Amino acid sequence: MSAHQGFLTRIAAETSLPFPPMELRVLLGIEEGIRVAWKSLISDATKHAIMLKCDEVDINVDLELELDKTLSENTCPTFTDAQFNAPTRSEFFNFNGEKREKRPDLVFSLKDSRPGIDLRKYDAVFAECKIIGGESNKNMGWYVKGGLSKFVDGDYAWAMPQALMIGYIRTTQKMPDPLSEYFFKKKTGGEFNSKVYNLQGDPVMCPQSNRRTVYRVCRTVHSRSWGYPPDGKRKPGDITIRHLWLEL
Fold first, then answer.
1. How far is the first Cα of the chain from the last one, in angstroms, to the nearest whole number?
2. Cα separation, 230 vs 237, whole angstroms
3. pLDDT in tens, 210-223
4. Full-prediction pTM beyond 0.85?
5. φ, ψ (nearest 5 deg) of residue 151
6. Where are the beta strands (DSSP E) in the chain?
7. Would you say 138 and 131 are in contact if contact means Cβ atoms under 8 Å apart?
8. Could you report the per-residue pLDDT of 1-23, keeping only the tens digit for each?
9. Are 89 and 64 in contact (CB under 8 A)?
10. Three-class DSSP category at 185
11. In terms of Cα–Cα distance, which of 76, 67, 77 is closest to 38?
């Protein structure tokens, strides 16, 4: 066992995991901040044209900077500098410390620590971002295998019962149909994707999205089969993943 794994094992043994869920108002505040920042980004015709062709990393950087600007200029009443830290793109351990340089696309944390939580860095809303459309390999398989699976496998958000997937959409697809079609499609060999990714129930639209025509949020719930160190007996429980799709 490495020193890093030993440290994480000790911390995990002394910490109550998983952490309690973030309040709904916190999740909605983050999502509204993303919407405000996104609208500002695509309102710039030159930048929008570039975003239609560039890769995910470039869009992530632009969105991170615009979110910081949204906070500093106080342009979103539910996503404010008084409550939230600027989103980051730093390194984290996975659930057992075997992977030490995991880099979620965006991480949202609160200014004030929640009571009773020791590993403050891991008490956050972790977001993974994926392009959908525009290229043959930028499909739902890429979105799930390259993004969502990291939450199910314990690479990201292993201390949390919630996470966020952000889709940069270059197609006319609308949720929840593409998610449902992918999860209930059989893989080669006859196994449904829903079983592969431990889907619990169907993808459903979040009630707060019912009145929206764009930038809506869908929700999926997935069980997680791994356990916390040192012995793997403590299980993380299900993770609820909110899906916010931003149309390009």
1. 46
2. 17
3. 777 789 999 999 99
4. yes
5. -80, -40
6. 106-108, 125-132, 162-169, 204-205, 217-222, 239-247
7. yes
8. 555 556 566 666 667 899 999 99
9. yes
10. coil
11. 67
DSSP H helices in 137-246: 140-143, 149-152, 177-183, 193-196
Q: Find where tokens 């999502």 sit.
A: 31
- d(C-alpha 196, C-alpha 194), whole Å: 6
Written as six digits, the tokens of 163 are: 């996470």
Tokens of 240: 């609820």
Token reading at 225: 């089969």
Of 55, 12, 69, the closest CA to residue 248 belongs to 55
CA dihedral sign, ordered 33, 39, 40, 42: positive
Write out the two tokens for 247. 């149309």
DSSP state of 22: P
Encode pLDDT of 27-70 as tens digits: 999 999 999 999 999 999 999 999 999 999 999 999 999 999 99
The answer to whether 78 and 28 have CB atoms below 8 angstroms apart is yes
What pLDDT does residue 135 have? 78
Collapse the DSSP code of 162 into the 3-class scheme (helix H, G, I; strand E, B; otherwise coil) and give the result. Answer: strand
